[in-house]
Amino acid sequence: MKFEDCRVNSYLITSQIGEGAYGLVYHAIDMHTDKEYAIKAVVQSSGTSREVDVDGGGTFKKSARLQRRLARLFKESSNIVRIPSIDLESIANMSEANFQKLPLYREISLHLRVHHHKNIVTIHEVLQSAVCTFIVMDYYPIDLFTSIVDSKHFTTNGLLVKKVFLQICSALDYCHEHGVYHCDVKPENLLLDADDNVFLCDFGLSTTSAYIEPNVCIGSSYYMPPERISFDSAKYSSSKVRDHKLKKNCPSCSGDLWSLGIILINLTCIRNPWLKADKKEDNTFYYFTKDFTVLKQILPLSDALFSLLSKILQLDPKRRMSLQRMMKEVSSITSFTNSGPLSKVPPLAKSVYAKFTDPVVTTKENPSSEQYTHMDKSNIDENPFYSSSTDENDQGREEEQEDSDSGSGSFGTLDTDAGFHSSFTSTSCDSDNDYTKLPNKMSLFEKKFNELHMNTSSLTN
Ligand SMILES: Nc1ncnc2c1ncn2[C@@H]1O[C@H](COP(=O)(O)OP(=O)(O)OP(=O)(O)O)[C@@H](O)[C@H]1O
C-alpha cells in the first residue's frame, strides 16, 4: 500500500522510509514551508506495552494492520486528513499512571523530555487520529548502520569516528541526566545529517526505571548487555530479593554504556564482536568472558582501544567506565586500530571536544496552547481516540487477539540467518584457547559487516 500524495494536515507524504516493529515511517514535505519531515505512524495496542507483544509474525501483522488502517483513513477523507495536534508539553509531563492507560505515549513522552539536545531527533508535532498517532520529526537521509556498512564512511577518518562517537555519548549523557535510559542504542537508531552530525531516535524501549527488567525487553541482541540476557529471575523465590538483585545487577544506565562499547567497535572495525552476549548461546562471547584478550584476537584493535574497550565492556555493570570518562578517553586516544588509516588519530583540542559534546539546549517555541488538544487527566480518561467503541476499535481488538494467538516470544525479531557460517569460524572448538575456531552463526547483518571490510583471515592471523 502506498500513500504518496496523501496529506496529513499540511504534510504531503512522498514515500515510505522505514518500517519498524511498531510503526511505519514516511518522508513528507510541509506544503507551507517546503521543509522535509519524517512522520512515524504508530498504532495503539490496547493495554499492552511495547516489549511484550512482538514476535516475527506479530511484527508483520502490526505493520500490515497499520497500513490497512491508514488506507481506510485516507480513503474516507479523499486522501487529505485533518487531525488535531496534541500539546507537546502535556505529553512530556505525562505520568506513569497515564502511560498505563496510553502505553504508546511513553515513547513520545520520554523522547520529548530530551529532544532539546542537539544530537537527539526533534519532535515537531504529535497528531492524534482515531486510527493512529503521527509523530512529526526532523528528517535525516541516512542512518549510521548504512553509513558504516554501505558508504564505508568511517574507514579512513579517525576524527569523524571521534566526532560521531562523542556526539552519541553527549546525547546519552543528556538522556541519563534527565532520567531517561534509551535501552536500544544501535546504529539503526542513529541518524546522520549531510554534515555528519548524529541524531538519536526511537525511544520505543526507553525507560525511566533505574534498573531494567531483563529477558523481556526486545532490542537488538548485538548491542544488548549480558546482564539483560542472562538474569535468572527464577533463582529468586522472594520478589523482594529478586528486586534487590535486579537493582544491583541490571542498572539501565550501564546497559546503554555497554551498547556504546559495541558501537565503538562498529565504527572502528566495521563489525560486531558477537551476535549475543550470552555465554550459553554464543561461543565468541563465551571465550571473551574467560579472557578479554579474545577481543584482540578477533578484531584489529590498537592497544589503546583494546584497553579502553576492556573498561567499557566489563561484565559487571557496576564496573563499567562512566560516560564522562569514556568521552575523555576517546577524545585523547591516538590510535584505534593496529594498522591502516585508523592506526593514527589526532587527540582533540579542548575547544573541538567542547564543540562535539556541547548539548546546545535550545528552548523550542511552543505555539499557542489554544491550537492544541491538551493531554490532561480528563482527556486521557476520556480520550475518544483511545477508548471509544468504534467499529475500528472492535476490529482492532479482533486483530490483537489474532496477534496474541500467534504467540509472542522474546528475541523473536532477531535477524539471524542460521545457514550462514563465516569461514573465520568453524562449528566446533576443541580447546578453550583455540580462538581461531570460534563457532558463530552469522546474521545477514553480520555478514554485511564482514563482507565489507574485515576478511576473516586478517582477523585471526
Ligand atoms: N527522523 C527520521 N528521519 C529519517 N528516517 C527515520 C527517522 N526516524 C526513523 N527513520 C527510519 O525509520 C526506521 C524505523 O524507525 P523507528 O526505529 O523509529 O521505528 P520502530 O518501529 O521503533 O523500529 P524498530 O523495530 O527498529 O524498533 C529507522 O531505522 C530509520 O531508518
Can you tell me about this structure?
This is non-specific serine/threonine protein kinase. This protein has 19 helices and 10 strands. The chain is α+β, with helices and mostly antiparallel strands and 461 residues long. A 7-stranded mixed beta sheet has the order 5-1-2-3-4-7-6. A 3-stranded antiparallel beta sheet has the order 8-9-10. Residues 46-57, 363-372, 382-445 and 449-461 have low confidence and may be disordered. The structure holds adenosine-5'-triphosphate. Residues 17-18, 20-23, 25, 38, 40, 121, 137-140, 143, 188-189, 191, 201-202, 204 line the site of adenosine-5'-triphosphate (ATP).
Mean pLDDT: 78
Strand tally is 10
- The tally of helices reads 19
Question: Structural class from helices and strands?
Answer: alpha+beta
Uncertain runs are: 46-57, 363-372, 382-445, 449-461
Large-scale geometry: globular
Oligomer: single chain
- The SSE order reads EEEEHEHHHEEEHHEEHHHHHHHHHHHHH
Q: Give the biggest beta sheet.
A: 7 strands, mixed
> How widely separated are the two ends?
50 Å
Bound molecules: adenosine-5'-triphosphate
Q: What proportion of the residues form beta strands (DSSP E)? A: 5-15%
Please tell me how large the radius of gyration is: 23 Å
Helical amount among residues, as a percent range?
25-40%
In spatial order, strands of the major sheet run 5-1-2-3-4-7-6
Catalytic activity: L-threonyl-[protein] + ATP = O-phospho-L-threonyl-[protein] + ADP + H(+); L-seryl-[protein] + ATP = O-phospho-L-seryl-[protein] + ADP + H(+)
Protein name: non-specific serine/threonine protein kinase
Keywords: ATP-binding, Kinase, Nucleotide-binding, Serine/threonine-protein kinase, Transferase
Family: Belongs to the protein kinase superfamily.
